[in-house]
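Margin note from the TA: students keep mixing up input and output lines. Inputs are the sequences; the output is the structure of the whole complex. Example:
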Amino acid sequence: MSGDTNPAVAFEARGVSRRFGATVALDDVDFDLRAGEIHALVGENGAGKTTLAKIVAGALRPDSGTLRLFGEPYNPRRRSEGSAAGVAHVRQQLSLVRGLTVAQNIELGRPRRQVAGAPEETAAPGDGEDASLPAAGRGAGRRPWPRTFNAKAARAEVERLAAELDLSVPPDELVDGLPLAVRQQAEILISLAWGARLLILDEPSSALGPLETEALIELCLRLRSEGTPIIYISHRLPELAELADRLTVLRQGRVVTAGEEVAGSDLRRIAELMVGDLSLLEVRRPDLELGDVRLEADGLHLAAEHGPGLRDVSLRVRAGEIVGVVGVAGNGQEELASVLTGQATPDGGTVRIDGTDVTGSPGTAIATGMALLPEDRTAGLAAGFTLADNLIARRVSDAEFARFGVRLRASVRRHARALAQRFDVRPPEPALRAASLSGGNQQKLMAAREMERDPAVLVAAGPTKGLDPHAGRAIRDRCFEAAARGGAVVIISADLDEVADLSHRVVVLSGGRVTDRFGVEEMTSARLGAVMAGLHWDRSGEREPEEATGGGGDGSSADSGAPQDDGEGATGRHPGEAATRGGKEGTS
Amino acid sequence: MSVTAEGPPGGGAPGTSGAGDGTRVPRADTSFERATIGLGTSLLAVLVALGLGAIILAGSGDNPLTAYGAILAGSFGDSFAIGETLARAAPLAIVGIGAAVALRAGVITIGAQGQLIAGSIGTLVAGFVLRDAPPAAAIPLAALAGAVFGMVWVLVPALLRARLNVNEILSTLLFNEFAFLLLGYLLNGPLKEPAAITPKSDPLADSVILGDLVASTRLHAGVLAVVVMVALFGLWTRSTMGYRYDLFGENPRLAHSLGIPGRRIILNSLLISGALAGLAGWLQAAGLLGRLYVDIAEEIGFFGLVVAMLGGARPLGILAAALLVGALQAGGLHMQATEGIPASLSDVIQALILLGFAVRYAPQIAAIFRRAVRSVGETLGPVVRHRGARTAGGTGGPRGGPAGAGGDPDGHGES
């Protein structure tokens, strides 16, 4: 029984290095994962977390260094060998195949070959298998060739595992229609069915709302208690404090802190180790200086086949004001973003920018100075286009970039280089394709295109989602800058921290309705949680008239005193708090 | 476009966010390296194809060397052969350019075959109307008639696609059949040359016939139109309008959010491809053949799509691909005639060599194809999810934005 050689260590890496061209992604990294622990791997984007995860999963081979899995030498040449050995890598972009059900997905890609170190071969002589490797017992294992799809068995397997893990994963529904959180659960479930003995979760919570994140944490804790060790990659420290046993911090490819116990450690110090400079986490929201109403949405109605659509949503945002629209994903946020930017035509109501009606007309919205950062970055960038071509998308026909309808390529390139540098897009290389940029730089690229000129209205959906502190701060500062220069800013997000950091005023969207409005200083997680969960549904009928018509007019000037105070509060806030606060007070 | 891939490492700041997450860093390759790799794989792919062809030829009792020699002689061996290659390449390039405009906008049309037939009929009609006009006026008008007829032939599929999201691959394919049957009817009935045994039309009016460019070849003056079209297409790829079409093909959702009218782009790109296919019909009728035959379109419509893809939907690429296909066809015919190698075997050899190039350019072709195929998938979706697509707008069904939204996206401003 291989587990006997060193039962305490599930995985260890010694002196692992990996380069990409001239970039050193990992430099002499040691890492160990004990059996039955959750080990957090933290660091900024580009710190090497994902590279290490890929090496563990077998998707990448290290240039040097040794790996051991459950005490055995472990040299996977590709991802399939890693998963055959029991390593499951659940990535941000889930790998479930759309158009198939969960039960069909469980069959598709089930590891066929088993390599050395896999449970079937190594465990055969021993009989202590259940004690040391309980997770391995979950999977049905490989079937003899020819492998045919047994729909009933697959469904039963999904149901059995879902019951064991206390998840509600429907076996027969198409993956496409499932919420992200459920798809993620399905992927974890499937990897267990494939005999995973070690899970790598790469930024699993980045796209989840607070309640879904809680569920994910619960699932992880349950898996740990059943003996499955987990490598948990994230840069959300409060979340790690709740679930991780130990953490390793990577910075620029090097281990800064190895395997530190999470219990009793100072999260602020961890944040500092991760970023290298705590001032990055400081939030300097500009003081509220209200100007004229720039964005005016009245009585928006939208019927939707999926989700609640919009029901009588009104919103007024003044120059210099940042309004956060918060709510559990799927409560009308996407619809609101597309209606506000003119992309979707509402069934009722109007949207005006500086008095110009832009309802249902994205072209007019852009002409009047609307800027949009969509939540889904694939919707906001032409990935196959170069940086230069992406950056002029709003201004192709400007006299600066075209003469007689023919594009002036030199001028387009020059513009791209200057703009990319101004917005710190790296590398600022006009001829590079947008697809080759990292997520943070893609977001910066999008911001550069949209906010090259001061926007009249900025609608940003989850603008800092999934970004590391550096990139996150850059984007956050752009949003502040837009407001400070007299723009009306709307932040739409399911992330409470993001909304709390960015907004002066908060609007809660639930079931397609605005169910609450308040200044950010009144924002507590208890209040928000209750409102977001829809507990105050009946309130919507009895709102004060000024709130019912939106926080504009007297309503928003009444707000203006309070956010001023908050502005001071924000700048006076302790630096580390931004990273550790929110939803989970008391962790620091 | 050599690119210094590595971002400045941090520039003082500790974050190397420019370098992505390590794995995203593009490989640093100089254009020289890439050129040599490209040449190597190109040669290898073609050599493998030639090798496979040699095995087939040898298996059927032919000498591969003489067979390949015949292909070369028939395509570039003398002035007649070169003329033949160019005359065959001309309509391929023009159809290819039309297909490329559509492909770049994410639309796959395989209706060039029918549009080409329509264009040749248009040329015949123009010749009849303009039989007494001076050639200087009649020739351009005949070309115009060819283009307009091609455009008319794609109008119904284009409107169906733009308005009702009817898949353009199916509809244009069906319209090929209509065109073929219509031509067959015309050549066996109203337009039939009375004395002819096989169905063919009377010769076109002299006023619209294109003269030979080089004596004792079939190279007609119409191939000059290719030069014009390649230049225009080059301009298109650099124009602001071409940019919008490309952007729509690359990311319909982004295009929609920028106020670019998707339906109009779908409609126009199909009309442009139809016009160019019609123009190729004019080349065939007024340039090469001088009258209409049932098989006037040969397989130019389909090979035109091959040329567009093989050429990476770029002007010079298309030109090169058209020359390659034209040379293979001319050489293949020559091989068949001089070496007595069966036509079908000749087709197999041509196909193998094309396949070799296709393998070489697989990534580029895949990129074009992905764009178009993606749009097909999205076309089929929103028909069912019409309502959902509408509300999704920016984030939901991509094509649902422009095409699935209630009302014309161009007209939204008036609401």
